[in-house]
Amino acid sequence: MRKFGKTGRRVLAAVLALSMCLPLQALATEAELKKQQKETQKQLDAINAEMKSIESQRDSVLSEIDSLDSELVDLMLNIELLESDLQAKEEELAQAQTDYEAAKQKEEEQYEAMKLRIQYIYEEGDMDYLTLFLEADSFADFLNRADFAREIQTKDREMLVEYQETKAEVEELLDQLEQEKADMEALEAEYQDEQASLESSLAQKKAEEADYEAQLADAQAQASTFKKELEKQQKELKRLEAERIAKEKAAAAAQETASVSTGSSSSGSSSSSGSSSSGSSSGSSVSVSGGSSKGAAIANYALQFVGNPYVWGGTSLTNGADCSGFTMSVFAHFGISLPHSSTGQRSMGREVSYSEAQPGDLICYSNHVAIYLGGGRIVHASTAKTGIKTGTATYRTILSVRRCY
């Protein structure tokens, strides 16, 4: 019996050594890969930040382009209206020039006619008045005839003055129209200069936009590369994690077998030790692996209560607790306050990924919560039928992993 016991202890020592070496090697590989993953994520975050900056600058340039386009459209409309006004002004000028020439012609014709009549009157002298006197039927008729002659002269003078005034008015209008046309042509030149400037600015901004689009395309290509690398790293992490957990489970199973063998070899030594062993068998078959000392202490403490009853609404680790009552009481032993609610506990501490889960972490499910032991195992107040027990962490969909210590 002693020989068998020593052999069992040697097997246990070998198993423990194996369980220490193999997972550590896997963890070292996982740690290295996680470091690479963090660096990749850091680069991706930097590229995403750069993309946001480029998009912001591009949007700013696009806004400027829209503004310049709007200004250019308004300016083109103004130029079009101005050209229309210029055409109308040229037509007014042409009409005014025609009116001026006509008024000038009328003035010259009237002036010539008046000169002829005045010349005739002066050349004929008093004979005209004598003729008027002799031909008159009476003195009153003579006066009427003389007044009529003077009236003709006055009318000639008035018509001449009228034509002169018309010519002057038309001439003034011509000057005004010429000045207005000159002003409009100067304004058109300014508009054309402004149009050239706007078109130059627009071309520059469009070149900037094209440059930002090229930068954005490059950044997006880099981001896509980093995302693919992250996916690749994540797949590799999952593979390594599954491999590590499988090795941990195999080591735990081997350890449990060795423990059973060792227990069998020493079962006859004393009845008191035998009863002690049976009293803790429920929790001793599962070990805590990895993690921090605080987390391991929490997990080991929780294992002490495996086999105790499940009581809905309960918080007693010995007389019965529900899932959140169990975790609340375990953590309270370490001075950590948790609410008596699985949903409330899902927001406590900080979240970590399941691949980063360590002993002592809370594994949160829908309306349920457990304590992680490592190696893909948990301890929890399961149901009224099974009580506080250990089990596989992934037996249900995990909603969150919380680290509260």
Count of separate DSSP helical elements = 8
Strand content: 5-15%
Counting helices, strands and paired strands, the structural category is alpha+beta
Gap from first CA to last CA: 45 Å
Low-confidence stretches: 1-9, 11-28, 265-284
Q: Could you say which overall geometry the principal axes of the C-alpha atoms support?
A: rod-shaped
Order of helices and strands: HHHHHHEEHHEEEEEE
Largest sheet: 6 strands, antiparallel
Task: Count the E strands.
Answer: 8
What value does the average pLDDT take? 80
Helix content range = over 70%
Radius of gyration: 56 Å
Report strand order across the widest sheet. Answer: 3-8-4-5-6-7
Mind explaining what this structure looks like?
The protein has helices at residues 2-124, 126-135, 139-265, 271-279, 281-284, 293-303, 323-332, 342-345, and strands at 315-316, 320-321, 350-352, 362-365, 368-374, 377-383, 387-392, 400-403. The chain is an alpha+beta fold. Strands 3-8-4-5-6-7 form a six-stranded antiparallel sheet. It has a two-stranded antiparallel ribbon with strand order 1-2. A hairpin with a 3-residue loop joins β6 and β7. α1 (2-124) runs antiparallel to α3 (139-265) and α2 (126-135) crosses α3. The chain is rod-shaped and about 170 Å long. 20% of the residues are buried. Mean pLDDT is 80; it is low at 1-9, 11-28 and 265-284.
Write the topology of this structure.
Layout: H1 2-124, H2 126-135, H3 139-265, H4 271-279, H5 281-284, H6 293-303, E1 315-316, E2 320-321, H7 323-332, H8 342-345, E3 350-352, E4 362-365, E5 368-374, E6 377-383, E7 387-392, E8 400-403
Antiparallel strand pairs: 1-2, 3-8, 4-5, 4-8, 5-6, 6-7
Helix pairs in contact: 1-3, 2-3
